[in-house]
Write a structure and sequence with these properties.
By secondary structure, the chain is an all-beta fold. Helices cover 0% and strands 49% of the residues. It has no helices and 11 strands. The strands form 2 sheets. Strands 2, 4, 5, 6, 9, 10 and 11 form a 7-stranded mixed beta sheet that branches. The model has no long low-confidence stretch (mean pLDDT 96).
């Protein structure tokens, strides 16, 4: 059974940093792409970043500010978020699917497995 659990959200000032963690069980990083989506009321869900054994993906809105990494030893994927902006405020969800990150380029892509989400608020 695939289980994903996010942690690390919170309140941060504009220009600040946060690191989100996605603890994954029931997956192997060799076979699965693990990614992050974010959702704000009234807006479309956005695929933010993804990592697999073959590739990585970043949305244009976060390139140069967010960094994704995977740590096999503890089956955790991290999303380091720097230079945060108020428009980064959202609930961030970890998601997993067999394969690569290529589907993240598609509109309305939805992986098979999801975590419960963690709130990130960027405000002065």
């Amino acid at each position: 059974e695939v289980r994903l659990a996010e942690s690390g959200g919170g309140l941060v000032q504009p220009g600040g940093s946060l690191r989100l963690a996605c603890s994954a069980s029931g997956v192997t990083f060799d076979d699965y792409a693990i990614g992050w989506f974010r959702q704000t009321p009234g807006k479309e869900r956005e695929g933010v970043s993804c990592i697999s054994s073959r590739d990585a993906y970043y949305a244009d809105s976060v390139k140069g500010r967010f960094t994704i990494s995977s740590h096999d030893a503890d089956n955790t994927v991290y999303l380091r978020m720097d230079d945060l902006k108020p428009e980064d405020t959202a609930v961030y969800y970890c998601a997993a699917e067999r394969g690569t990150c290529r589907p993240y380029y598609r509109h309305n892509y939805a992986p098979a497995y999801w975590g419960q989400g963690t709130q990130v608020t960027v405000s002065a």
